[in-house]
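Many introductory courses stop at the sequence. We go one step further.
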Amino acid sequence: MKVGDRVRVNTSVVVYIHPEHRGQRFDIKGYEGEVIAIIEEWKGRRVSANLPILVKFHVNFKVHLKEEELELIT
């Protein structure tokens, strides 16, 4: 997986930050978006982020996810 790939959430992932459902439990399973970053370092140091893949679903909705929670869209 790399920056620019189109991906789909393939497992149940509950978020509370969805712009239209802020503060409420919302499952994003099936949502499609684009990988905009893979977090591998911070301030020049290598890190092992728990949720390293940043996915943008629409203009004001981005989520950090694990690779196991995503599938590539071809």
